[in-house]
Structures are given as structure tokens and as C-alpha cells.
Amino acid sequence: MKTLPIxxxxxxxxxxxxxxxxxxxxxxxxxxxxxxxxxxxxGGGEYNVAxxxxxxxxxxxxxxxxxxxxPVGRLVEDFILQGGVDPSLxxxxxYDGVGRSVRNGLNFTERGFGVRAAVGCSDRGHTAIxxxxxxxxxxxxxxxxxxxxxxxxxxxxxxxxxxSTAEVAVEAMDAARKYSTPISYDLNYxxxxxxxxxxxxxxxxxxxxxVRKVDVLLGNExxxxxxxxxxIRGVGEDFAELPIAGYEEMLREVATAYPxxxxxxxxxxxxxxxxxxxxxAIALYEDKIVHVPQREIDIFxxxxxxDSFASGLIYGLLAGKGIEWAVKCGVAHGALAxxxxxxxxxxxxxxxxxxxxGGSARIAx
Length: 365
Known about the structure:
Elements: E1 15-18, E2 22-26, E3 39-43, H1 45-55, E4 61-69, H2 71-82, E5 90-94, E6 106-110, E7 119-123, H3 139-143, E8 152-155, H4 156-160, H5 163-178, E9 183-186, H6 191-194, H7 199-211, E10 216-219, H8 221-228, H9 244-257, E11 263-273, E12 276-285, E13 288-298, H10 305-318, H11 323-337, H12 349-356
Parallel strand pairs: 1-4, 1-8, 2-6, 4-5, 8-9, 9-10, 10-11
Antiparallel strand pairs: 2-3, 6-7, 11-12, 12-13
Helix pairs in contact: 1-10, 10-11, 11-12
């Protein structure tokens, strides 16, 4: 595996994410099917990475997405603005009045507690971003002189939205490659997105082609199996035990199958309950394994933990901190993100660094 070159900071953005931003409706401690009120957030697998890099790590980020131009879309935009993410690459699509042709995605999410697992119920058919096609974004201008990004992040959720979104991902990756922009891709397998369009067979067909254009590949054991057909050995269906030797073998198998990859990383999660997880990570970089052992953490809202791992890892790489620091940063940031509600991180860099050093939860005042 070759070293990953990092562009200098002269480009307009430090990271550009490509994906959907949905409105998340959260029933708090209750259930979706009995709720009488919801708290509202924004979220999306690819977007969460850009927001984490901006709000926690202070980098310049943007999101390439599309929204229906109605009050719901403008509410999502308002959240994006509050998060400090540059909205200039949002494509605004005229709204037809009822959402027959275009709409904005909704994501109802239960946090879970104890023996009751977290639950997600998406309502995202016919969304504006799912209908983007080749040519809708001027990638040459976006990645070329006058603009440019030090990093491109996208993933398997965006690629699953429609046949055309996978084509747009290819178009973006090709332009990024032309301008020596590193590309990260989070496999992020979601059965609900693939089951009506060919299931795991289609997921593997699409993702095997996309991964050939990627520098940094992220996921967990289920993602690698479902999206690439590369399974980890020595684990049960409940993933109660995570053999590190099996993970190392899996990462090396992925790197052999896709020699373009510079870094492959997997989060390590064992769920004793919805409220208590063991959390860590393992990565393969320059043919060497970096392992951050699992530690027990308490969970308030697990959604977005993997995205915050990704943003912490990317920050470490962009900041030139070295691979071990970057993986530890990802684990710490992901752990902190799961202590607050919503998809996105509310952590600060100082908090992340304190966790990386083994800091306790003693009150700070």
C-alpha cells in the first residue's frame, strides 16, 4: 500500500462531501409509533462527516447535495448553515406543491435503550438528490483551479439512492482524481436501501466498481461482507466476539482485491445493550495494522457514531498527525458523538484530545 499524499491548504475547501441531507425527526425517549411530538435535526451519512470536520475540528467544508425548494428544504438549509458547512453547492429543485415529482427526505429515528435497540424509519423516495444525474454538478469547476478541495468524501448510502447517483459519484471521483484530491468512501450498508433494487447482489455490483476509484475505504464487518462480498472469519451472527486476527485478515484481503486503496479502516462495535457498547477501531495503512482496542462506553444516541469516526480519522490525516493519532482521534470523536442527541457531533477538539489521553468524565468547571 502506498502512502496517502495530502494536498496543501491553498484549496477552497478542506473537505467536500457528496450525499443526501435529510430532516431527522426524533421522538426523544419515546417511540416513533406512539410519539406526539418530535425534536428535529439534520443528518446524512456523508453530510455528517463534513459537519463534524467543521464544527469539531474547525476545517472548511461543503456539501454537494440537492433539496426541493420548499419550507422543509429551507429548514434543512438552516441547519446546514448553523453547522457552518458551506451551502454553495446545494442544487435547489423547484417544488411541485405536493411532492409528486420531487421532495425532501425524512428520517424518523428512535435512540433505543437497554434491551430495546435503536430503530430507523426512512421516508426518502423521490428526493431531490436521488434524481441528480451526470452533468448536474460542474465537477471540473468544483475541483479545478479557483476552487478545489483537499478531500472528497462520499459513500454507499448516496450510491444506493438511484442508478444515477452512482454515476454522479463516479463523475465526482474522476474529477477529484484529476486534481489529486484524496477520496474516502464509507460503505455504510443499509438493507432498506438495497432490498427493492437487487439486494446484496446489486450492492456488490455497484460498490465493487466504485471502490476501485477510492483511496480510503471505511466500514464495519457487515459493510465489507454485504457490499464487497469479503466476510470476516471467526464471528457469530450476533458479533458478540470480535477476533482481531480475523479483522486483520479481512482488511488485508480487501487491500489485495483493491490495490488502489491507501488505507482501509473498520470500526469495532460490540453491543451489550442499546445503552452500553464496546467501541474501538482497526486500520491497515502502508501494510501495517493500527489497532485501537475497544473500551466500554455509554450510549445516548448511537446514530452517526461511524460518521464521526470518519471525520476524526480524516482530520488526523489532513492535519498531518500520523495514522495512529488519526485512528485514535476517530475512535474518540465517534465515542463523544454518541453521548449527545442527533446524527451530528457536538464535541470539541479539546474534548476529543482529552478522551484520546484517557481523560475521565470528571466535571470540568
